[in-house]
Amino acid sequence: MPRLATKFNISWLEKVDSDGVPVKRWLKQGAQLSSFICTLCKTGDLYCGNKGWQSIERHMDNKKHRDNLKLLKENTTFTIQTEVNHNPSKADSSSSNISKVTLASRTKKFSFSDQVTRAEALWAINASRHGYSYLSCNESGDLFKKMFPDSNIAQTFNMETKILSYVISHGLGPFFHRNLVEDIRQCERFVLCSDEQKNCQNNKQLDIIFKYWSVKNQRVVTRYYKSILLGHAPAHVIRDHIINSFRTDGIDIKRLLMIGRDNPNVNKTIEKLIDEEMKKVGGELLKLGSCHIHVVHNTFKSGTTTSHWYIEDFCIDVWSWFRHSLARKEDFIKISEELNETVEKNILYFVCTRWVLLGKVVNRILTQWEILNEYFLSYLSSHVSRTRLLFISYLCRVVFDKFLTLFQKTGSMIHALYEELSNLYRTVLLSFLTSEYIGNKQGNDLLLIDHKLSEKQMNDKQMEIGEETRKSLALLSKEEKETFFRDVRNIFQSIASYLKLNLPLNNLFLRDLKILGPSYRSDTQGIDTIIRIGRFIPGLLSSNEIDLLSDEWLMYSIETIDDSWIIKRKYNGLDGQEYIEHHEVDFYWNKVLSIVQINGYPKYPILSKLVKNILIISHGNADVERGFSANTNVLTKDRTLLSEKSINGLRAIYDGVEFLGAGSVHKVQVSTDMIRAVQKSAASYKEELLKMKALTASQQKESELLQPAELEKKKLIEEEQELMIKYKKLQSKHKTAELLIDEGNQRMENSLKNGDFTDIHAAYTLNKSGIEKMKAIDEEMTKIMDDVSAIQQKRAHAEREQSRKKRKLTVEPVLIQDENIYCD
């Protein structure tokens, strides 16, 4: 007969804990008969059916509970009123009356000095977040004194240029960086994304971000790690910077899951080099290719440039015409007023690296077409230009915008990538091929379609070009229509060819990841699919864990899922129809993976390990490129002399506000650790200056000490070079002497052979002269080589002496003390 679960006993409320505190101050019965709630820790229902009172004692031993209890004892304003609820059915309705904690009691009391530092920290964070120049904050303290004369904090506030600088670079920046490193150390795996751009300092700035499952936030987060300023940036230099940064911060490189990248060859090489480093320590990278958002942009470029319409040049020309002349802009506005039109927005600038954004530029031109037509008269009077622009607008809006809008946002989208890429390719094919030929093909089956077969293509009337474009055709001549449709067909074929070549529709791993979507929970192939996924991730799951994975997926497939885990809200749109907004997939999975068994242990430990490290996989490089906008905000034209440390500080603070304050400075919780970091920033700054000064002095002394030896080495090298030049000249003379001897011997041989002895004397003279010259040259060459040997010995002695002095400098470092090095 099964054992009955132990019910919550009201008499337990009369007990005290090990410190003598009555448990009724924080203990109450849960919604179920066999559960309890700790109002101190703000827990949900905790099960006590197996162990009874022992379950409560085990909770009392929890570190979080002990810390909260300590805070309760130390802070008299931290009061918790607990009422015994004898009716479990009313537990939820009375919960608001059971636990009352004031906001003031939730934060530790700060001293006056700490409150001033807190205000200064918030102002420094605000200046960093909004891109204020350091100089603009110079009189902020005086301003606050004037604005708040009754505030003692305002009267003490001090945040001048120099103070703001070191608070950012040596206080707040390192604090937020440590916050990230502490969070990253707790996760199982993480993804590194990087990209570079030229900043306002004319330096190449490499930004690195991490994407990982945050234990603190229980969701996928994307956070800024650091920036590196580079000159020449070959792959091995970037690799060394990344690996050295990991070592400095104590980040295990084996936990790096993958590198998100775009497609330049240098990034491919970086991925290869880091993978080689990981294999040395038993790790391995997951490789899924380059950024698919770039592929889509390049696809659009491939199609539009095939037509030779030069739409991009036209858009840039229109923008430039008005951008560089106020008089032209004024004339344009006058014409708009004459036509009773309103110029609501300026013409946009087309960025050639973001080709699909050409659609937004075209739309802005089309909304002002009548004004532009009147302004430019004959040039825009051609209806062909407007028809082309309408088609480009349709192509961007209907075919490409959905994918880019979906995958340029933050969060986890890897589970939807394969299906959306398949839909994109299918949409392109259905725009100019017959639906009978396409059928219901999806995914890699679409790659089998030959889109160049003329008999499978639609006729001109059937091709998808957009309703406005088709209306505009009525204004074209027959020849113009034929040319237009031929160009459109070439555009579609070029787009289809590029997608077919570059989309990863043959990647079965990406295809399998769709199983993580809530709608695929009951898929009949789910068990086989999740096992393939588990096997594919290098070194994540052991063989035993993969064996147990199928059972967990089976339990998950029949799990009771609350709709609120999937649906965020339902609302009525302007058209009166009902729309559904869904939660992010990591929110859904956090709810699923938080389910516990009756004994309190997680129900899906292996599935949790796998899913959390799948959802962090990069679906594109948009996250790191979004940081370029932050760079523009942080590295303004007023900040062209910032050091690398200051740049990292500003970006770390900017990211910290996003992560800890949801983008608002006033929502960032100023902790004691942050206050201490600000207070210690001056000392850290001074310490670094002392080290730099000491290093400079050490290098100067080393240079002075080693200079005589360097001069001697240089002199010996010059002497050696002069001797070797003489030696080479003597070698040339030696060859001349050899020729004289050879000529004398030849003449003597010919005289003896012919019996003519008249030339023997001349031959003898040549021979003798050559031998004498050769002997003299040999003696001189021997002397030179002896001198060279002596010089080399002197050089070796000088180098040994130099090395000895260097070792002495290393053992006895130079210490510099300068009281005027820093002034607060």
TrEMBL record:
<dbReference type="GO" id="GO:0046983">
    <property type="term" value="F:protein dimerization activity"/>
</dbReference>
<protein>
    <recommendedName>
        <fullName>HAT C-terminal dimerisation domain-containing protein</fullName>
    </recommendedName>
</protein>
<dbReference type="InterPro" id="IPR012337">
    <property type="entry name" value="RNaseH-like_sf"/>
</dbReference>
<feature type="domain" description="HAT C-terminal dimerisation">
    <location>
        <begin position="591"/>
        <end position="650"/>
    </location>
</feature>
<dbReference type="Pfam" id="PF05699">
    <property type="entry name" value="Dimer_Tnp_hAT"/>
</dbReference>
<dbReference type="InterPro" id="IPR008906">
    <property type="entry name" value="HATC_C_dom"/>
</dbReference>
